[in-house]
Amino acid sequence: MNRQKIILFFYLSHFLILTLGFSIQACQPSPIDESKPSLAITNVTVIDAHQGQLENMTVLIQENRILKVEKSEDLSPPESSTVINGQGKYLIPGLWDAHVHLTYDADITPAMFDLFLINGITSIRDTGGKIELVKPLKEEANNNPNTSPRVMISGPLIDGIPTVYDGNTPGRPELGVGVGTPDEARVLVRQLKNEGVDLLKAYEMLQPEVYQAVLEEAKVHGLPVTGHVPLSMDVVSASKAGLNSIEHMRNLEMSCTRDWSQLMEIRRKELANGKEETGGALRSRLHQLHRYQAIANQDPATRSEVLSALAENNTWLVPTLTILAARENRVWARPKWRADYKYLPDSVDLQWTTRSVGIADLPVDSLAVVFANWGYDMVSRLPDAGVKIMAGTDTPIAFLTPGFSLHEELRLLVKSGLTPLEVLEAATIRPAEYFNMEEELGTIEEGKLADLVLLKQNPLEDIRNSQSIDIVIKNGNLLNRETLAMMAKKLDDK
Ligand SMILES: [Zn+2]
User: Rounded to the nearest whole angstrom, what is the distance from the C-alpha of residue 143 to the centroid of ligand 1?
Assistant: First the structure.
């Protein structure tokens, strides 16, 4: 009841803002420059997280901006406009995948930009890669804004010692940099700032005092910090220190038990004794040691306190159910999912197909089911707790094909209990807000950048309709049906 009231208030207040906005706008002279080309989508249903669903609208785009969003009966596009009839179709803001590793597999990297675009993903947040590898990709995207997704980068995982992604363990490429002291951490943060990163990623082996130094130095430079809560810390302390977001809800289960401080004590001893192990092995061992015990002992009162702390400190979650629930959801067991491997380079397609088919018939691990169900349940609690979320996937890890994986994440978020509109919010306006770009992106409003996706079916009726993509507009550039089909064909043919 309470939540319904909040939602009602939300819509009423936005209705008022919108009405007021229209009356102010009506007094302004038309900003349309008829001598320049423009693009009009007419008679379309506009859907975004702020306005809900607006029927019979015309959206007029010039250069890379949305110039007008008005009722079709009130706005006729200039004669020079390219007109797209949006009758019976649905226009949503360009999507974000907020958890991507562009450089996890060098063979896949060259295909990723196009895979995102053909899936309606116009912006991505890279959450970990060597700076010398991800920086050129960001520059490439900046230099070609009409034909690349927008790329936000964190640079490497800022990890402790031993380092999880050290490049010496199979399946763990060198995505991380190990720092052992607060001073080293500060130097690294300054270096990354100078390299032009958009955020930082703190990782699991950091010691609390080093983690603290990362957050303090990041604040000085105005950089948001995301992370996996370090194994040596509880979620509330990590959040209080100023963490902006938590990936995969990592280590959250631990902090939601009544006996979390005892578990933490054991964990700290294990960390101190584990210096001889590789970072990857030590981390996995500690997860196995505590995760299922913690899930069995979730304490509702403690969980409420933890979620309140996240809401209060404005620490967001990026659940990445695609990876959290991977071994329960098992995308690789679906022939339809495997069919899309054809868009990856041949060597990757072959390798993924062989490995996927090899594990497709294995029985489902019961612990994986326990963990997945914990994840779905936790996500269902977030809206009422006031914890904000973003949609991200961890592609291309775990057979998560770039682009396609975001639609799978949207589906899993709805499966967990979010409304389709809440899920669209997590994939559009939230990531824009995360980077203070909400004036530029994330909704379909006058003055914003024209990153848009036209759908053939209504995503609010069934979130899987987010894949019924007709056209994509990136930075005002029209990628029509033929262009998208050509891009897909090129990836398929190689
Ligand atoms: Zn990741």
Answer: 26
